[in-house]
Design goal:
By secondary structure, the protein is an alpha+beta fold. It has helices at about 15-25, 35-40, 70-80, 120-140, 160-170, 175-185, 190-200, 215-220, and strands at about 10, 15, 50, 85-90, 100-105, 110. It starts with 9 loop residues before the first strand and ends in a 27-residue tail after the last helix.
């Protein structure tokens, strides 16, 4: 857990207030369960109760995790290999309907601590958000911010697509459906997220998994993938800045 280490400089009984003020800087005040709280957490400005999660964390050592720990640890090992940091954070830092999130701009992954009460849901969220990391790998590599769908459209069952569309359209986020349906299908599959994270760590994912047609156009346009036989070249325009390493 990130804690504020308080050190008070004392010399001949004197306290240095300037140093103390800097060290004792308070956490930002944000409304709980708000977008502001979530943003504060993502930026690591709100760190009270936020704890790093690794494959060796005691958080997942309880007996209730016995049936799920192996895959959870495999996912965490894969995330560590691609240099994505995972955090467990208090429920108040998430909006009401959010149980986990991955921010490609910072390569930070957050899980709502309430999920510790339900190891099955915890694993599902690790698969889902971990798949967003896989999408980040497919979109040009973990060093960029572009995320690309990984499963081909015909690989995602119609019921997954339908349920995802209903859920995200009800929240006014219909543009997120392709990425979320992709991640929802990964959530249903044992071992797929861990497997693909290991592939991400080995090298360009698009050289190991055939990209979707739209992703292929993106990768060719960015110069990361050679034009395919019978496939026209494509040059990105509005988002061309994403074709370089760096976070935007």
């Amino acid at each position: 857990m990130k804690k504020l280490l308080v050190t008070i400089g004392v010399s001949l009984g004197l306290i240095f207030p300037a140093n103390a003020e800097k060290i004792l800087k308070q956490q930002p005040t944000v409304p709980p369960y708000s977008a502001a709280a979530m943003g504060c957490m993502i930026l690591l400005e709100c760190t009270e109760g936020v704890e790093k999660l690794t494959a060796d964390s005691s958080i997942i050592s309880g007996k209730e995790f016995d049936s799920f720990r192996g895959e959870i640890k495999s996912i965490l090992v894969g995330l560590d290999k691609v240099k994505v940091t995972v955090y467990i954070a208090p429920e108040r830092y998430f909006t009401r309907r959010t149980v986990g999130l991955y921010k490609p701009k910072y390569n930070r992954f957050f899980v709502n601590e309430e999920l510790l009460k339900d190891p099955r849901e915890f694993l599902g969220t690790m698969r889902h958000e971990g798949w967003h990391v896989v999408q980040d790998c497919m979109g040009g590599g973990i060093e960029t911010s572009f995320m690309a769908q990984v499963h081909q459209d015909n690989e995602i069952p119609s019921w997954v697509m339908k349920n995802t569309r209903l859920a995200y359209e009800s929240m006014g986020q219909s543009r997120a459906v392709p990425w979320e349906a992709d991640a929802n299908w990964a959530e249903e599959q044992s071992g797929q997220t861990a497997k693909h994270l290991e592939m991400c760590a080995k090298g360009p994912l698009w050289e190991q998994v055939r990209p979707t047609p739209m992703t292929m156009e993106w990768l060719i346009g960015c110069g990361w993938m050679k034009p395919q036989e019978g496939h026209k070249e494509y040059t990105p325009n509005k988002k061309s800045d994403y074709c370089v390493e760096g976070k935007f």
